[in-house]
Amino acid sequence: MIQQKKLNKNLKKEDQEKTKDKPLVDIVTKKEIAKIGMTVSMGLTVLSAFNLRSRFSKNLHIISGAALVGFSFYHNSLYDKSEKKPTSIKK
Q1: Does 3 score more than 70 pLDDT?
Q2: Which helix (H) or strand (E) element contains residue 51?
Q3: Residue 75's pLDDT is what?
Q4: Percent of the chain with pLDDT over 70
Q5: Is the model's pTM score more than 0.70?
Q6: If DSSP codes are grouped into helix, strand and coil, which group holds residue 42?
Q7: Where are the alpha helices (DSSP H) in 1-91?
Q8: Tens digit of each residue's pLDDT (9 = 90 or more) over 41-75
Q9: Distance from C-alpha of 71 to C-alpha of 60, rounded to nearest angstrom
């Protein structure tokens, strides 16, 4: 029984070392989350623009617009600045 506890502790340490290097959410998932956030906030901005007479719609329009800017900035920050853009083919 003591040996089994030691074995479990060693396995836990190995699992911790494996997960230490691996991020919880990969870059592709982060980009998708940012795209979904931009889509939802843009939709709310457009829909709330139809009824700006209401105080609730005005506040929703402002908040969703700010969220759109925030998600856009976050999405842009996920791309590496040192990546080369594909060049066009010259004929």
Answers
A1: no
A2: none
A3: 94
A4: 69
A5: no
A6: helix
A7: 2-21, 27-49, 55-77
A8: 999 999 999 999 999 999 999 999 999 999 999 99
A9: 16
pLDDT of residue 16: 57
CA 86-74-67 angle, 5° bins: 130
28, 42, 41, 30: which is closest to 74 by C-alpha? 30
Locate tokens 């976050």: which residue?
74
d(CA 56, CA 62): 10
Whether residue 60 contacts residue 44, with contact meaning beta carbons closer than 8 Å, is answered with: yes
CA distance 56 to 50: 12
**Separation between Cα atoms, residue 63 and residue 35, nearest integer Å:** 17
Query: Tell me, what's the pLDDT at 23?
Result: 73
What are the distances in angstroms from CA 42 to CA 46, 52, 74?
A: 6, 16, 15
Place of tokens 């396995």: 11
Best CA proximity match to 60, nearest among 46, 74, 39, 75: 46
